[in-house]
Amino acid sequence: MWWRRQASDPVPTPQEALDERLSAYLDDEVTDAERAEVEALLASDAGARAYLDDLQHLTSALASLEPVRAPRSFAIPAPTSSGAPAALRGVPGGVPGAGRLTAVLVRRMEWAMRASAAAAALLFVVALTYNPGDSGNSAGLVSTAGDGAALYAQQESAATAMAPGASDAPDAGAADARAPAHPDRTGEGVEDAAGGGAGVTGSEEPPSDAPADDGEMTTMMAPGDAATTDGTSDGDASRTDGVTAGTLQAGDPVDETPTFRSPESGTFDGASSSDGVGGIAPALGALAILLAVLSVMVARKDERSSPDRR
Amino acid sequence: MSTSPRPPGTPQSAAQSSGRHASDEVVEALVERARQGDLQAFNSLVARFQDGVYGLTLRMLGSPQPAEDATQEAFIRAWQRMETFRGGSFRSWLFTIAANQARDELRRRARRPAQSLDQARDDPDRPDLDPPGDEPSPETEAERQEMRAALEAALRTLPDDWREVVVLSDIHGLDYREVAQATGLQLGTVKSRLSRARARLREVIQDSRELSEAVERLGVRR
What we know:
The complex is a heterodimer of chains A (310) and B (222).
Chain A: H1 14-26, H2 32-44, H3 46-63, H4 98-129, H5 135-142, H6 147-162, H7 172-177, H8 185-196, H9 198-203, H10 214-220, H11 226-230, H12 235-250, H13 256-261, H14 269-272, H15 280-305
Helix pairs in contact in A: 1-3, 2-3, 4-15, 5-6, 6-8, 6-12, 10-12
Chain B: H1 12-15, H2 25-35, H3 39-61, H4 64-80, H5 90-111, H6 117-121, H7 138-156, H8 160-171, H9 176-183, H10 187-207, H11 209-221
Helix pairs in contact in B: 2-3, 3-4, 3-5, 4-5, 5-9, 7-11, 8-9, 8-10, 9-10
């Protein structure tokens, strides 16, 4: 028998089985044997005849319900010269396959934009916190110059970071003292400190067990003038200078590192630019915002035009 | 409409001939052109079948906006898949796609219980489901409208899967195999669901004396 039921179908009661037979007979969806069986039943059963009569009226009434007028045309618009409309993505006669591909690319672009926005935002934060005078960065920059030079750079950073309060801080003189060969060193220190902030200074504290050796310090400070050297004779700054001087004795020549830090060398110009108004940090911030806005716009546009949005 | 009451044993396809003329030579020619990528030919098919497809989705979904969406989506998908049409009744193939769209929407509603058929029933924007008629007398038209409204209300009392079968079969005139194709059901399941749906509708109609009389009058008249 060609009738089959879903496995989940309930087993019909005898009355339901009879109703099914009559319903199928009404639609001429019975075999010859079933038809003969039903007609024999109808000849002898008034209730079956009445039921079939009801079904006939019902199906006739239901058939009268057709048709419903469509409220508008559902015709598919022709693709324009600028490309298939959204509703025609991937349809034949539009741009075969291209629409669906476009939809996929747009979705991927959305994710790429979000990822790029996140990366740009991260770089923005890094750029904000990055300071050219940072010990880590400085050490990294001078790592090839040897440990002595690296530590000297650390101390240079510490000194320059503290430089803006030259009239207040006891170690301001040390900063000046270490930069005799560079007339604009004080100015550079102010600039660095302004960009770097207090955190930089904190990170550049020297090891607590650093020896304070005035003699070595004097040796290191030899290029400087005596007046400023006197200013470094007490407190942390004094011990810091001691560390620097001691290390420098075992490392590269002192005058190479200041050259590295020199504004004239141009080495720091790029790093310093991250602190400026027109530097890389605002650019990264703007890029992050731009990409985020673009990704949202792409997502909304895709949502509106997608036929599968429901 | 010019159909006459279907006598017992009369093939459904002969009784509801209005749905059968769609698979004529004109349609076949349009289908063949549409399969070659002729959008104009496809839109001719859209114009020919959009009332039926919209009527199906409207009765399955119960409110106009989801029915419009499902209808539009059905035509877009049909256009996208024209090359997969392997002949036979284009109308029932189209109804298969439309029924799938409507069923998807019903499943989505099932996941969002707040939006139910009850809500759609109370939708003030729900359109009058009257067919575009000949020009009957005002009295006759009022009677028909009342009867149709009651029938539509009775239809909405059916479970979704029963309603789908009875709409496809008794309103749109698909035979059991076409209904099985459109719904993805076994023929035996189509048969049993249709029978149960009719039995339920019969009960609803019998509970309403006015509707019962109207249906009887309509059946005799037709």
